[in-house]
Amino acid sequence: MPSYDLIIIGAGISGMTAALGAKKAGIKDILVIERGNIVGGLINQCIHNGFGEKFLGTKVTGPEYIDFIEDELEKTDIKLLLNTDVLDVSRDKTVTYVNSNEGVKEVTAGAIIFSMGAIEKYAGYVKIPTNGLTGIFTVGEAHRQINLEGYMPGKNTIIVAKNKWGFILARRLIIEGGKVEAVILDNDFNNITDMEINNIIDGFDIPIIENSEVVEVQGIARINKVRIMNLKTNETIEKECDSLLLTVGFVPENDILNKLKVNMNSETQGPEINGYQTSIDGIFACGNIIYGEAALHMDETDGIDCGIKAADYIKKYIY
């Protein structure tokens, strides 16, 4: 018999709800492995309302949603390992992990769910060097700094945005007393705006520069100025700032999946799935790892459905 009926890698919202879904479907021995020191993943830094309607009947902030799911987990006997890195996963469902308490350990599973999420990664959006000056961050890094660590990336900021997250950040900076010099879009604002974005910026005087991109950053140790080019006219302007926040790619954490030779979706860069099962029998995936950048436009999680699918597999082939 395997060490666990089900092992879930990643304790973000999708991983936690997958565990709940599998437990409620009758799975007994479940292990959740998380490399961080807290559960919840990226939603910890999302303090705006917009999460949990599927479970709570109303939208709440990311931390409130995490608290609810964590409370539900604590009512079960699901085992959770924090500060634990997964080193390897084999096709026979052996998981090798390491942490400070156990060292390197191997465990086996009847089924595995990958729920490691996605990470920010420079992926062709940024055409300027970003490693020579301080004050240049990704949008996600800036969200984390403000909402989790409690400090501002700068006092006079320019944001390169492609979706609602840039505008949410702009609003947050203003609320905290900072100044947003401009939000720069490489397209028409009307091409990306919707009711949600309009509600985000309503009442906040956020300057928007359309059809433009940052083509040069200036400064000595820290950024103090950028040059912005209009993509239609090629005209340039300069704006002073002490921080530049960049929207970059949001790429699934798929290193282990690639090593397993799981069939991958070339568009999302995540695994191809059928009923949440990957191309390898008994190995499932859910959450941001299967959606990539599309996840940035989603509020709800599919974890509980994935957990139920994995439970069906375990009851059919393991029990």
Number of strands: 19
In terms of structural class, how would the helical and strand content be classed? alpha/beta
SSE sequence, one letter per element:
EHEEHEHEEEEEEHEHEHHEEEEEEHEHH
The global form is elongated
Helix content percent band: 25-40%
Strand content: 25-35%
Instruction: Please outline the major beta sheet.
Output: 7 strands, mixed
Distance between the termini: 9 Å
Write the layout of secondary structure elements.
Blueprint: E1 4-9, H1 13-24, E2 30-33, E3 49-51, H2 53-56, E4 60-61, H3 62-74, E5 79-81, E6 85-89, E7 94-99, E8 103-114, E9 118-121, E10 136-138, H4 139-149, E11 156-160, H5 164-175, E12 179-184, H6 189-192, H7 195-201, E13 208-209, E14 212-219, E15 223-230, E16 236-240, E17 243-246, E18 249-252, H8 255-259, E19 283-285, H9 288-291, H10 303-317
Helix pairs in contact: 1-3, 1-10, 4-5, 5-7
